[in-house]
Model the fold of this input.
Amino acid sequence: MVRRATIKAETPPAAHLPEGGLSVGYLMGRARASLLSGLDAELAPFGLNAMQYAVLKQLAEGSARTAADLCRYMYYDTGSMTRVLDRLEEKGLLRRERCREDRRVVFLRVAAAGRAQLPRLRAAGTRVLDDHLRGFSPAEVEALKRLLGRMIDNGLRPKLTGGATDLHARGGKP
Amino acid sequence: MVRRATIKAETPPAAHLPEGGLSVGYLMGRARASLLSGLDAELAPFGLNAMQYAVLKQLAEGSARTAADLCRYMYYDTGSMTRVLDRLEEKGLLRRERCREDRRVVFLRVAAAGRAQLPRLRAAGTRVLDDHLRGFSPAEVEALKRLLGRMIDNGLRPKLTGGATDLHARGGKP
DNA sequence: GACAAATCACTGCCGCGGCAGTATTCTTAC
DNA sequence: GTAAGAATACTGCCGCGGCAGTGATTTGTC
Done:
């Protein structure tokens, strides 16, 4: 995260990048970078970045209750997550609370201050997304999601020459 | 770059992420990460990462001749580019050659060793991309590119509340 | 011709993400 | 009951990306 600002953003009239090869990859990188830098810019007034917002949002929505949950849910490194949570806790937007039944886990609760900020944060998030999806019909958004989802699925079940990626899809214990 | 390997890659049966909110952003991040980690894995045997490959490729194809060219073309930071080129030069895949007419610029030439590796690198690149696009019809690939391109264009011409992003689209000299 | 502005490559600095390793606690197997 | 394994959170370490600033050189302006 942090992408602080779009790289210069010279003055490209259109987004026609390298045609051949990884075009799709380039386009995804550019689109994602634009989304993230826009989000970072909108969140800057609150002293937050995109990742911190995402974490806060997932916690508030109940999609996750612990750091491990968040990491699984967001495909994020556990070490980095610890530090994200540190920053959120420092800012007083989050509280950590050791679980009594299982003393390994630490529950994460959005603090009152965080809960108070969330509506504005959410507004910033939807603003950026809607802006990037300007002119998209609902069907087109759905199509985009579907195509991206298929790419992800393909990546999870690679059919490469020798299974080079570290997928150890332990398919169900015997 | 460098994403060295996919984050754990636990065992998610499908890519159904957070429905609401930034879903598109999450999906793009995941898809891009999958592409990059796959590419890094395929390039690891050559001691290269995705970024180094991309640079070498653009240079070989004549899309750019200098560091500044590459940065504009790939939306990349000039400082980071210098270091990417340093590594490629260290590996003997690239030569720097000061221009005589304009002594500020340094021409970049793919060294013989680099040119020799390129076919295998290219093969790795297309392998990863094709793998992620498995089952996609040409029309679907085209649709995906078009949708991503529109998102990028939207991001370049933001219609946000107060032009928060640092776009200074100096619209054509008068 | 002189000065300002722009361009190019590069460097120092900082934050972040990913990996590997650690301590603690729980679960499973024998 | 105990030992082995897994899970959780955390820390140290390293590489990389982005920003700001520098020096050299060229271009543009008056």
